[in-house]
Specification:
- This protein has 198 residues and is mostly beta strands.
- A hairpin with a 3-residue loop joins strand 8 and strand 9.
- The chain is built from 1 helix and 17 strands.
- The protein starts with 8 loop residues before the first helix and ends with a strand.
- The longest helix has 4 residues.
- Strands 2, 3, 4, 6, 7, 8, 9, 10, 11, 12, 13, 14, 15 and 16 form a 14-stranded antiparallel β-sheet that branches. The protein has a 3-stranded antiparallel β-sheet with strand order 5-1-17, with no helix packed on it.
Length: 198
Amino acid sequence: MKRFKCGLLLMLVLAFGVANASTAAAVQFHSEAETTKITGSQTTTAKYTSTAGEITCEKATYTGTVVGKTVSSVRLAGTVSGCHIIIFGSTISATVSQNGCEGIAYANGEGEMVCPEGKNVVVTASGCTITIPPQKNMGAKYTNVENHISVSGSASGISYSHSGFTCGTGSGTNGTISGSSTAKGTNTAGVPVRIWVE
């Protein structure tokens, strides 16, 4: 039961692992437990591209709690680390700040990044700041694997802006992201439970 993100977009993207939205109707997330804690982690290096450069992040984790055995969406908060940006062939360490932004994964494959009013996900590196505002309509490809869900894919059309002497000033709606992750569930006692999507 996961979506991104994404940090969020970066987790959501960089961690929400995104892809094309499914066209199946009435798809839902399911769990064996009435209340389920979702815990997810990135399984491949996430990659985000924009006119500012290419960002890669090695690790993303996210959590959320679902009440009900069947739901259409899951809200997730997370962190992203081990990030770098490649500018003019040079690899520079980067930090992703979520600033309270979270991701919403929809069972039909769509996703959304939501933030407190006036906030955005911000990526900073030496001489470069990239801002990713709240946005929706990214998606994920879900695969049921034993008792958990595998998420993978790629997305395009991500909005962003950037500034700084190493990446220049600009903006666009042509950002892309790719990555994969896995989502697992536990009940209120911390015991693993099966989660799936169909």
